[in-house]
Amino acid sequence: MYVDQASAQELKAQLVDLESQYSDILAAKLNLDLTRGKPSGSQLDLSNGLDGILAGSYKAEGGDDCRNYGGLDGLAEAKALFSQVLGVKPSETLIGGNASLTLMFQSVVFTHLFGARGPGSAWSAEGEIKFLCPVPGYDRHFGICEELGIKMIPVAMDENGPVMDEVEALVKSDPCIKGIWCVPRFSNPSGIVYSDEVVDRIAQLGRIAGANFRVMWDNAYAIHALHDDAPVLANLMDVARQHGTEDSVLIFGSTSKVTFAGAGLAFMGASEENLKHFKKHLGMCTIGPDKVNQLRHVKFFGDYSGLMAHMNKHAELLRPRFDAVLEHLDAGFAESDLGCWTVPEGGYFVSFDARPGLAREIVRLAAEAGVKLTPAGATYPYGKDPEDKNIRLAPSFPSLADINKTMEVFVLCVKLASVRQKLNS
């Protein structure tokens, strides 16, 4: 369907057919949800072996009792394992609670209020603070900035990652820009993997930015490939070390989509100097993390190869769901001018761009038909997509049958909104 090439008469005939199909769907009273990238029950079941794995033995390798207080930065054996996910040294690793979002929020709050290097280095003492936000991006990153009154500046993404000419020009021109949010492998929502050149240029931002600039490297999908030959991400910390900018880098990850989403582990990678300052403030709000959970994760995986074998099981469950979404998009729009979409090789999302001005209407039509989609605008700062075109699709949680039904409704809503828009233009 090429609406730009169709005559008014052809469009009106299509509209009658589409509205008839839409009426049938309304009558079906569906209740389907494609909003958030949660693991399915089958994925959660992969980690049921965590339950009882310690069999009453709570001693860490060093002999400490994991049931007791202490160990602010986590168990040594947990740091040894998950530092490999982060791409840093164990001495540059902190293991936290169950949510990397908490570590990210704490990192921004601590630096904003107390400074990266103690008194006098607080961002809040410098006036208006700004962050660069590659778009489309992750709404919870934007929420952290909005909560703290940090101004967000959208920057464009292409197939290689953030458009670095734009990023570098902004950073050079404004010392009040103190950070950039990045989801570098299988980016949320586009699925892009940052190129080696982009990683290298991001690593050098600490040289040209204002004081205490931080790259917030949320590598949430570092090990979430759908295929064995998925693109590999360059190691940011290694590259930053080459440029002498390792203090400008904060790396985050978790097992939220690896084991139990609500009872996993979060981890942070940073230079030893950065960790020293972070732990000083962290020690004011906690005595220590859940080391029992850390120990059972280490016992469950054994080593990094055990972790990757576990991730292959996730991929087997996720591939059919992603394939179903892409098959519906191909069948519905391959021969049309109604939209374009990404074909991710990992992560949890497919990013769809409708014709400008239609995302909110498509989401509304889907909601009326009983299909919940991520709110239009969620992938942009302040919930404002300037072209009102991006929609994030999250196929991990629903059953395959529900995904197929959801995508039938989605394709229909895109077509219906597009034809109506063209006829009204």
UniProtKB/TrEMBL annotation:
Bilayer-spanning residue ranges: none
Assigned keywords, A-Z = Aminotransferase, Transferase
Which InterPro entries would you find in this protein's record? AspAT_Ic, PyrdxlP-dep_Trfase, PyrdxlP-dep_Trfase_major, PyrdxlP-dep_Trfase_small
**Keyword Manganese among UniProt keywords:** no
Please give the Gene Ontology molecular function terms for this protein.
Answer: L-aspartate:2-oxoglutarate aminotransferase activity
Protein's UniProt keywords contain Transferase: yes
Can you name this protein? Aminotransferase
| Species per Swiss-Prot/TrEMBL record | Ketobacter alkanivorans
Q: Taxonomic lineage per UniProt?
A: Bacteria, Pseudomonadati, Pseudomonadota, Gammaproteobacteria, Pseudomonadales
